[in-house]
């Protein structure tokens, strides 16, 4: 019997930044030389990582929040200093000392015409022209790694003070996976990124839970109209060898933004391990000697093309295609010694297609559809001979087909007295089909190991909320979100 699960989550976020004397949090941020740090970002969270507020230190290094949870967490971030997390209570946090990051730079003269980061409606908005000055940054992924509080752990980006992190482009939801988005960002030139917004509590109109980073790509500028392009090439030599190259084109006019990206990567590497050991079992010593080689090679093609047409006023429509192709990836591992002799060869092909259509009207409506298709197929040939001369051999074929759809509609209305009404809905559908079949080479029946699984999931959500900006030091927002989720029997 299928069950239906309906979750209603009510989120009320209030923050008042005024001049009241009670319920405040104050402190000062300095470096190891006791010098005040100007422009450091201080983020206030509850103990369960719920975003409350954010401020910027002044020229004396001081900061002030006009609200005080019973216990709370502060996150201190600055481009030139290590990120610091502090869990504490009380009104006065005292003096906070940040440690400098290890940058090997020549003498640098910085003229501050624009702030590095601004706090805008709960978002931390970073100025990339200052963030990437005097640094080698080649693509959008490396830009994210330069953000204070962002680090890469096991190939995934994380944000200090956040349980999970989502990446979005131009404020639009996508059906691409985190790994596929990472490949997209690594192939997007750094020069194409205009602005980065960090949100610890993402508003519901982005259709994302938790923290998110929004990358805004460059659009038409009168002084930079026409055709722009970049060509890149590189060679990597370390424990692995590889080559890469590509081209980036951008054409902008008052009505059109058209872009084309193409990159290709070829990598090959070898890993060698020699194992020598004396293993004792039941008072007997066994000598173990094994030599292992793992060879990998493969090529990846990445292409993205998009077109945006701007109607009169603020309305526009955008169509973009992203493709990732791995036509031939080979892995070969070989082990030889007095324990076993094994040979394992794997060939894999994969491709991903993403199509995104977005429309923004002149009356506050935003709608779009996003589709991702992923298909992979692999063949494995395995042979093993142990020290008793017993041989096992089999061949496997496996595959995966994934289809994801997302449709969303959002609406915003300006009400009297500068209130704003926001509401919207989205529907997400995903289908995942996995197969693996064993084909024996020596007459042994292995059909019981075969797998053929398919599952579908549906997610429907809706929200409604109000917001109001009451000057530079006071704002209010409230929203309610509901979600219906269904997969298999749950």
What tags apply to this protein structure?
disordered N terminus; 26 strands; globular; 5-stranded mixed β-sheet; 12-stranded antiparallel β-sheet; 64% strand; mainly beta; Immunoglobulin-like; 490 residues
Please give a structural write-up.
This protein has 490 residues and is mainly beta. The chain has helices at 128-131, 140-146, 178-186; strands spanning 5-16, 25-31, 41-45, 51-56, 62-65, 71-78, 81-89, 92-98, 117-120, 123-127, 150-153, 156-159, 165-169, 193-199, 211-217, 226-237, 240-252, 256-281, 284-310, 316-337, 340-360, 365-386, 391-414, 419-440, 451-469, 474-487. A twelve-stranded antiparallel beta sheet has the order 1-26-25-24-23-22-21-20-19-18-17-16, with helices on one face. A hairpin with a 2-residue loop joins strand 16 and strand 17 (240-252). It is globular and about 85 Å long. Residues 1-22 and 104-112 have low confidence and may be disordered.
Mean pLDDT: 84
Uncertain residue ranges = 1-22, 104-112
> Distance N terminus to C terminus?
9 Å
Helix content: under 10%
Number of strands: 26
Please state the oligomeric state of the protein chains shown: single chain
What percentage of the residues does DSSP assign to strands (E)? over 45%
Overall body shape:
globular
H/E element sequence: EEEEEEEEEEHHEEEHEEEEEEEEEEEEE
Question: Which structural class best describes the helix and strand composition?
Answer: mainly beta
- The strands making up the biggest β-sheet line up spatially as 1-26-25-24-23-22-21-20-19-18-17-16
Main sheet attributes: strand count, strand direction, barrel closure? 12 strands, antiparallel
Radius of gyration: 27 Å
Q: How large is the count of helical segments?
A: 3
């Amino acid at each position: 019997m299928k069950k239906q699960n309906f979750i209603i989550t009510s989120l009320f976020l209030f923050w008042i930044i005024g001049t009241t004397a009670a319920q405040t949090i104050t402190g000062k941020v300095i470096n190891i030389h006791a010098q005040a740090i100007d422009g450091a970002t201080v983020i206030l969270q509850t103990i369960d990582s719920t975003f409350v507020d954010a401020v910027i230190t002044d020229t004396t290094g001081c900061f002030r929040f006009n609200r005080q949870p019973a216990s709370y967490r502060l996150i201190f971030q600055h481009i030139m200093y290590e990120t610091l997390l502090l869990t504490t209570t009380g009104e006065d946090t005292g003096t906070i000392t940040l440690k400098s990051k290890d940058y090997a730079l020549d003498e640098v003269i910085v003229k501050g015409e624009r702030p590095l980061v601004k706090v805008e409606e709960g978002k931390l908005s970073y100025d990339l022209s200052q963030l990437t000055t005097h640094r080698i940054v080649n693509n959008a992924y490396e830009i994210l790694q330069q953000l204070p509080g962002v680090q890469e752990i096991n190939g995934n980006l994380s944000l200090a003070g956040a349980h999970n992190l989502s990446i979005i482009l131009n404020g639009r939801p996508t059906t691409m996976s985190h790994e596929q988005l990472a490949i997209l960002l690594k192939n997007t030139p750094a020069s194409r990124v205009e602005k980065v917004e960090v949100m610890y509590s993402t508003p519901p109109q982005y259709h994302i839970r938790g923290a998110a980073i929004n990358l805004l790509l460059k659009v038409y500028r009168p002084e930079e109209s026409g055709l722009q392009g970049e060509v890149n090439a590189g060679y990597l030599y370390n424990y692995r060898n590889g080559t890469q190259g590509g081209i980036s084109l951008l054409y902008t006019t008052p009505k059109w933004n058209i872009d084309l990206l193409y990159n290709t990567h070829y990598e090959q590497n070898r890993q060698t391990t020699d194992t020598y050991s004396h293993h004792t079992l039941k008072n007997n010593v066994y000598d173990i000697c094994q030599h292992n080689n793992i060879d990998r090679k493969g090529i990846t093609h990445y292409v993205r093309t998009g077109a945006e047409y701007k109607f009169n006023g603020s309305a526009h429509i955008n169509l973009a295609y992203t493709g990732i192709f791995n036509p031939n990836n080979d892995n070969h591992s070989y082990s030889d010694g007095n324990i076993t002799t094994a040979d394992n060869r794997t060939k894999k092909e994969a491709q991903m297609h993403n199509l995104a259509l977005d429309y923004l009207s002149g009356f506050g409506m935003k709608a779009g559809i996003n589709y991702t298709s992923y298909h992979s197929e692999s063949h494995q040939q395995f042979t093993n001979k142990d020290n008793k001369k017993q041989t096992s051999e089999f061949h496997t074929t496996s595959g995966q087909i994934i289809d994801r759809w997302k449709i969303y509609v959002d609406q915003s209305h300006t009400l009297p007295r500068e209130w704003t009404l926001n509401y919207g809905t989205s529907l997400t559908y995903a289908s995942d089909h996995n197969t693996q079949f064993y084909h024996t080479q020596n007459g042994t029946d292995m059909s019981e190991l075969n797998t053929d699984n398919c599952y579908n999931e549906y997610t429907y959500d809706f929200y409604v909320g109000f917001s109001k900006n009451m000057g530079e030091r006071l704002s209010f927002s409230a929203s309610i979100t509901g979600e219906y989720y269904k997969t298999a029997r749950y």
